[in-house]
Amino acid sequence: MPDFSDAIRFAQDHEVPWPRDPAADPTRWGVHHDDPPPYNRLRGPVHPRGGVSGVIWLRGEEVAAWGEPDRADLTYSIAKTYLALLAGVANARGLLPDPNETIASRLPGIGFDDPHNRQVTWAHMLEQTSEWHGTCLGMPDQVEHNRRVSHDPKPPQGRKGEARVLQRPGTYWEYNDVRINQFSLALLHLFRQPLPEVFAQSVLQPIGAGRDFRWAGYDDAWVEIGGMRVQSVPGGTHWGAGVSISARDQARIGQLLLDGGRHGGQQLVPAQWIARMQQPCAVAPFYGWLTWLNREGAMFADASRESWFMVGAGGNYVWIDPKHQAVVVLRWIDSAHAPGVVSRVARALSS
């Protein structure tokens, strides 16, 4: 059995420098402070976090755990991958038969109707190449123009929030949380059911997950669907709200991805959909469908090239390694030291 003790000690020694209680020092907690005013504020609930924690699974069995692996903590943009899984569920149900279909052709009247946005497909949203332009639940997409994220090698064209010339959908990659929230809103209209319910029923419950799971929306993110008032949820916690989930449940979801969407003899998400999530985007080869790829080792040099990742701010990682049949969950790691943790885990896996 591999010895992960060195990796665990290293992780525990390098906690993210955010306060554990967001109310204790709000200016050092979260990522919204970099946004242009008046958008540099929280719009949904947040809560205190635990310390460094994580779990490691090998061949479907837990072989290491540390910290508070059963504590439901905010997981930031790992929720984006959950939206990709929900789109896969919609595909299996026949609600989204072709990801290359334009969203406007199936869902008119929700923000995809002008000549530019009519070109946007579901695949563009999944790849973050949509260049969708507009305002989603009170937030303009321009807030996220020129955003810099650590694993994107492309330099920004200007200051964050400064308008740039939009490109044709499908031709330019930009990490943009407003567009992700618009994608989530589209999925809500597609299912006509709150996305947290769909995710719990279709993914979490069948894999034995979901204890203390929450997926909250912004305080004012309510829409009417079929005569019902429903809250639309974000694909992260950039402006508050988002997914709270435990490390062990994150590992269960990672194992589902490692197993091609199948659990206990049941195909929860189509295998071909899971495979497509791991295929590189043509204009951003480090990115799949709301997942991060390591095909050239650019993300983590010591991780296998087959590895793919869910990544959230605050040092939250779910690492899926098909080469070693491993799932590794890391929570609240100082991102500057994440390569050190990954390297130590990789050495142990290869020993």
Please describe what this structure looks like:
The protein is an alpha+beta fold. It has a domain at 5-74 and 211-221 and 244-259 and 269-350: DD-peptidase/beta-lactamase superfamily (Beta-lactamase, 3-Layer(aba) Sandwich), CATH 3.40.710. The chain is 26% helix and 16% strand. The chain contains nine helices and 15 strands. The protein has helices at 5-12, 78-92, 103-106, 122-127, 177-191, 195-204, 247-258, 271-277, 338-350; strands spanning 53-58, 61-66, 73-74, 135-136, 139-140, 214-216, 222-225, 228-231, 242-245, 262-263, 266-267, 292-293, 308-312, 316-321, 326-331. A six-stranded antiparallel beta sheet has the order 2-1-15-14-13-12, with helices on both faces. It has a three-stranded antiparallel beta sheet with strand order 3-9-6. Strand 1 (53-58) and strand 2 (61-66) form a beta hairpin. Helix 2 (78-92) runs parallel beside helix 5 (177-191) and helix 2 packs across helix 6 (195-204). The longest helix has 15 residues, at 78-92. The protein is globular. The N and C termini lie close together (9 Å).
